[in-house]
Amino acid sequence: xxxxxxxxxxxxxxxxxxxxxxxxxxxxxxxxxxxxxxxxxxxxxxxxxxxxxxxxxxxxxxxxxxxxxxx
Length: 71
Hints:
Elements: H1 9-17, E1 25-29, H2 36-46, E2 50-57, H3 67-70
Parallel strand pairs: 1-2
């Protein structure tokens, strides 16, 4: 079963993550705030939601326009 949840991460992603049970997701793709602080917050909020052997992913890692993603 696949469930796709979309929303403006910069506006409500943190609050939405609080509603998801820890360890309940197989895969999370985050396309949120690209600042270093924003990326760290996304990881802090979403990583616990992924079950053991699941995947948390994003993009723009080597995009020079988003330096915070790389750090």
